Amino acid sequence: MKPRTSGSVVRFAAPLKALAQRFSFLLLVLASIGLMMVGKIDAVLVDTVRARVTDAFVPILDAFSRPAATAARFVESLVEYQNVYEENQRLRTENARLLQWRQAALRLESENNSLRTLLKFKPEPGLTYITARVIATPGGSFVRTLVVTAGNRDGVRKGQAAIAGAGMVGRVIEVGEWSSRILLITDINARIPVSLESSRLRAVMAGDNSDQPRLLYLPPESPVAVGDRVVTSGHGGLFPAGIPIGVVASVGERGIKVQPLAELGRIEHLRLVDFGLGSGPIETEPGAGAK
Amino acid sequence: MTITFWQRIDRAGRNLAPFAVTVFLVLVGMVPLHLPLYAPVAPALALMAVYYWTIHRPDLLRPSAVFLIGLLQDLLSGSPLGLNALVLLAVHWVVLNQRRYFLTGTFALMWFGFGLIVLGAAFLQWAAYSALNATLMRLDTALGQAMLTLALFPMFAWLFVRIHRAFLHG
């Protein structure tokens, strides 16, 4: 009984199978291209799937990242032993300088407070921070993202700014339950409204996959000098104003380049800024992005 | 003569080795090494694995498996969905069609062939990204990545040979 049915099935199935095998490459290639189209058309759907899959792989990525971090720290400590003396000297002078600055800051703070009371100034809501560990830095020439171990349940929301060490490094583009993905400021798709601290000029800082993002939309003949500090402007309501990002590294014909303050290649932990004000703008952000 | 249930399980497990090794390398490729300037030129480990296993055991690394591996890489790395799948499929297809040259030749020839494949893959990736972003992307880091991948290939090929002998010739 069985051989006969399978025989008739084989008679129909065999050519089909051969055909499928013959064209499997073509079908899979078409599927790949189709998926790229889907990603272009319905980015939200793809992001959701991506967040789910990343969530599922978080335990493995987390486990893999730990020995690597330990090894990196070991190498770093060896290097640090070598120049501990110079480092100490440098820190002493820096400390002396910072103590002077502290005095200046205290004086300015009290002056600021007294002026605020005169003006009935409404202070911005306080910021809270979510600290997360970097568990994956997908290598590759064309994408600059990180995966961190904090997600929806920790209060991470799409659009929050990520800060490491001295400056902003990127923003959250995708949130899973336990993990989220950060788009670094150097990625070609990163656009951040910034202002130059000294001249208060506004610009948009755009990544171009190089180590130094560029400033766009500055008025022509703007007085921009190497060394000017670049901070978030707070426009668009996504990020709080005044988060330092970098300093102007070069002004030339190829545009104005910004050197990020944080070392983007060696981020181990970062803080996500929960901008108390922004639940409104943050939630309307995907709609605005789809336009 | 008859194959017992356990032997069948054992064989199935062994036959999974090429796929498992490739998936493992996709995950290892994501590990943050905290080295400055490293991430943009991090070697394409999955590409090496697909190349090696397509030459030596294409029966154990089917196009559908290559597609799934590429898709996993896309999902985890944040690159456009389907892009790495396309690149790995193209590599698989080219290598499969030229397999007899690679199989009969020396290691040097295999390495040389991998050089061509890596460059082709870098170029395909660059073209796809440029098309998706509607701008010309920079090619220099992609070439750097290709060179580093090529330079590290012998090390990983040695690893693949060990795994190949341990799991599939036993």
Automatic annotation (TrEMBL), chain A:
Keywords from the UniProt entry:
Cell shape
Keyword Transport attributed: no
User: A single Pfam family, by name?
Assistant: MreC
Concerning Gene3D superfamilies, the annotation shows:
Rod shape-determining protein MreC, domain 1, Rod shape-determining protein MreC, domain 2
The organism's place on the tree of life at top rank: Bacteria
Question: Is Transcription regulation a UniProt keyword of this protein?
Answer: no
- Domain Rod shape-determining protein MreC beta-barrel core per the UniProt entry, residue ranges: 134-273
Q: What does this protein do?
A: Involved in formation and maintenance of cell shape.
The UniProt entry's sequence similarity note says: Belongs to the MreC family.
Q: What is this protein called?
A: Cell shape-determining protein MreC
Gene symbol here is mreC
Automatic annotation (TrEMBL), chain B:
Coiled-coil regions, chain positions: none
Where's it mainly located? membrane
Q: Report the sequence similarity comment from the record.
A: Belongs to the MreD family.
Task: Give the species.
Answer: Azospirillum oleiclasticum
TM region positions: 37-54, 66-95, 107-129, 141-161
User: Out of the domains of life, which is the source?
Assistant: Bacteria
Q: Could you list this entry's UniProt keywords, alphabetically sorted.
A: Cell membrane, Cell shape, Membrane, Transmembrane, Transmembrane helix
Q: How does it sit in the membrane?
A: Multi-pass membrane protein
Pfam families registered for this protein in UniProt = MreD
Indicate whether Phosphoprotein appears among the record's keywords: no
Q: Where in the cell is it found?
A: Cell membrane
The molecule here is called Rod shape-determining protein MreD
